[in-house]
Amino acid sequence: NSPVKDMRCPYCSAAQGRCATTAAGRSVTECTSCGRVVEERQSQPHHLFHLRAQDSPLCLVTSDLPTIPITATATAADQYKDEEDPFEPTGFITAFSTWSLEPYPVFAQSSISFAGHLAELERVLETTSSSSSSSSSSSSSGSSVVVDNLRAYLQIIDVSSILGLDYDITDHAFQLFRDCSSATCLRNRSVEALATAALVQAIREAQEPRTLQEISIAANLPQKEIGKYIKILGEALQLSQPINSNSISVHMPRFCTLLQLNKSAQELATHIGEVVINKCFCTRRNPISISAAAIYLACQLEDKRKTRAGICKATANRTY
pTM to 2 decimals? Predict the structure, then answer.
């Protein structure tokens, strides 16, 4: 595996990868930090024959001066000296060349690089299928597990892309789904709802400010059904109850950022909401509605022109 320097992993933002080959023989680039597939490459060989000119020199020696005849009076020593003299003119060297075209083989190879999302999906499914095949004996049950994992993976990816979640939350949600599917039976149960419940649990563990209503709209599932499968997930995995994701302190900064409120208005809205919660003034209202009302009051006190419709849109709340 050779390192690749010019690369940025979309999962962990690492800047170094390595070239690897999948089980199917595909060339991919894996992140050295998290091991996920970042890029996939397809190479295609091309066998070409290039016509190249070939020059074959042909050298001929022609005399430039007439040779001096050897006189009878010259001694044998003088003749030997003249033959060994390097400065004796021996003639012009004329070079001729023969020119011809000859085909030369050229072995070229082109490569196309594209995103490795499908290769990463194959890697996840290969890991899932290998673990399921080792735990289950029948091939039909193993194939159904792979199909369920594929449906859950696509559901989690779709909802996460709509909500703009990090890849770590997505991976943790899929891991929660796999653990739950191996601990309980998925027969006559909604795979998409369970995958959404796993995503809700991962969001709450990461303390990401996302309301159940937002997740319900993104997943196109009713909140009641998601809450039902959240209980199933918690009972199957014996999960501890995380920090309430609907608390005012979690969502208030994001709501104020969407409404472009300053720090003083945000602090005032948070203070109003916490007082209402602590004094139990609105026991039948959820924290999101209380947050919307607190923002409206803070805007009135801070003289910020924010409409009720704009606050409802930012807080994903219809009434407050």
Answer: 0.53
